[in-house]
């Protein structure tokens, strides 16, 4: 009888532990109960090329009042828009869940940094297929990498992949030619305010 009680207690403890440490669910964080929960304010954008800083930082004045709040129950209030989110610390991803026309959509963003005082969200790093014709549309070199153009969009080749890039903000012209600076990833910095 004593053995049965002990085994029952162990089974109940195991079930409780499994339930408590459940896999990620829509509307909740998996893992840490803290992390992303709180209110964050936009501070700046940083532009990268080929994984390295371009030493260009952009502050969008229209975004200086932008705040995002993440609650413990999975609600995200993004500059007045209310939706749901899933934060996965294992993959450092933040999934925004929203609905349009009765259909559910999910946008997943990678968090490069998540600390008690700051989070940094990555935009960019897209891959693309280029036609043989467009692979011949060389427009210049940036940081030792050849840049190509396809219908006004820009790319470079790395590790067998074509990576999307853009001219630096304010560095567009109609000729699509010339030596200019490019970026392929935009990092949005947010500071904790609550």
Could you give a short description of this structure?
With 194 residues, the chain is mainly beta. The protein has two domains: 38-122 and 188-192, Lipocalin; 127-184, no CATH class.
Give me the secondary-structure topology.
Blueprint: H1 2-20, E1 38-49, E2 52-58, E3 67-70, E4 75-78, E5 81-88, E6 93-100, E7 103-114, E8 118-124, E9 127-128, E10 138-142, E11 145-150, E12 153-158, E13 161-167, E14 182-183, E15 185-192
Antiparallel strand pairs: 1-2, 1-3, 1-15, 3-4, 4-5, 5-6, 6-7, 7-8, 8-15, 9-13, 10-11, 11-12, 12-13, 13-14
Order of strands, main sheet, comes to 1-3-4-5-6-7-8-15
Rg measurement, Å:
23 Å
Largest sheet: 8 strands, antiparallel, barrel
CATH uppermost class of the largest domain? Mainly Beta
> Secondary-structure element order, as H and E?
HEEEEEEEEEEEEEEE
Taken from the alpha-carbon principal axes, the silhouette is globular
Oligomeric state as shown: single chain
Number of domains: 2
What low-confidence regions span 5 or more consecutive residues with pLDDT below 50? 1-33
Number of strands: 15
Structural class: mainly beta
Q: Give the overall pLDDT as a whole number.
A: 76
Distance between the termini: 53 Å
Helix content: under 10%
CATH fold group of the largest domain:
Lipocalin
Can you tell me the CATH architecture of the largest domain?
Beta Barrel
Strand content: over 45%
- Number of separate helices: 1
Question: How would you portray this structure in words?
Answer:
The chain has 194 residues and is mainly beta. It folds into two domains: 38-122 and 188-192, Lipocalin, CATH 2.40.128; 127-184, no CATH class. It is 10% helix and 51% strand. The chain is built from one helix and 15 strands. It has one helix at residues 2-20, and strands at residues 38-49, 52-58, 67-70, 75-78, 81-88, 93-100, 103-114, 118-124, 127-128, 138-142, 145-150, 153-158, 161-167, 182-183, 185-192. The strands form two sheets. The protein has an eight-stranded antiparallel β-barrel. Residues 1-33 have low confidence and may be disordered.
């Amino acid at each position: 009888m004593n053995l049965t009680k002990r085994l029952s207690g162990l089974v109940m403890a195991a079930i409780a532990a499994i339930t408590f440490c459940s896999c990620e669910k829509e509307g909740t964080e998996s893992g840490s109960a803290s992390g992303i929960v709180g209110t964050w304010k936009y501070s700046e954008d940083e532009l990268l090329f080929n994984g390295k800083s371009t030493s260009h930082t952009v502050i969008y004045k229209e975004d200086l009042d932008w705040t995002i709040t993440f609650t413990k129950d999975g609600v995200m209030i993004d500059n007045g828009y209310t939706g749901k989110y899933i934060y996965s610390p294992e993959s450092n991803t933040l999934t925004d869940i929203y609905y349009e026309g009765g259909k559910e959509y999910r946008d997943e963003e990678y968090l490069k940094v998540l600390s008690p005082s700051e989070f940094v969200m990555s935009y960019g790093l897209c891959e693309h297929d280029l036609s043989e014709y467009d692979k011949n549309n060389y427009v210049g070199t940036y940081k030792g990498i050849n840049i190509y153009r396809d219908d006004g969009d820009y790319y470079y080749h790395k590790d067998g992949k074509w990576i999307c890039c853009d001219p630096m903000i304010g560095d567009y012209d109609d000729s699509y030619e010339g030596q200019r600076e490019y970026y392929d990833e935009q990092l949005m910095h947010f500071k904790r305010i609550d």
